Amino acid sequence: MDSIDYYDRYAVPYYEETVELSMEEQLQRFMDLLPENAEVLDLGCGSGRDTLFLEDEGFSVTAMDGSARMCELAEIHTGRDILHLRVEDMEFDDVFHGIWACAVLGHFPPDKIQEVMQKILNALKDDGVLYFSVRKGDRNGRYNGRYYYDYSRDSLDDLLDSIPNIKVLDIWKTSDARGEDHNNRWYNVLLRKVKNKEE
């Protein structure tokens, strides 16, 4: 069972656990960097919770998830069409002013993350902004049906240093939005796509 199979199988409890969580602090930092009426991709949208928030703030949002069952639940929750597509199968080119990837990239192992990041950067317009979050820790493997690759600050810096044509805008840590039962810590990253890394 890969991570997509997990979300298909456990879509309802995952939806119920996450649909009411607030990511407002992270969303606000992301939105502050976007132009008015920006085109935004909610990558791995899950319940559609953040799609609705972004749309309420005036952005045009494409919501996407790799799990067919999560897409069904998100369509019910948002009343909008959800794009059923895996990150690694994206073929967008220069489309979005912003990409919101909350708790998605940690499902990709080190030998796949470069390819995935390139897909994401291809989808961004020049000067576009990416937000992503990864779990702080040392897991590397399958846990309860899902693959996780956690990051230390050094391994996160190594990843970011290896990606051409980006400017890191901010990195900060947060506690898990699900509360005290989940003592996870998360790295939150904001970066901008630039034509040349030196810009």
UniProtKB/TrEMBL annotation:
One of its GO terms (molecular function) is methyltransferase activity. It holds the Pfam family Methyltransf_23. GO terms for biological process: methylation. Keywords: Methyltransferase, Transferase. It is an enzyme of class 2 (transferase). Its EC number is 2.1.-.-. InterPro entries: SAM-dependent_MTases_sf. This is Class I SAM-dependent methyltransferase. It comes from Blautia caccae.
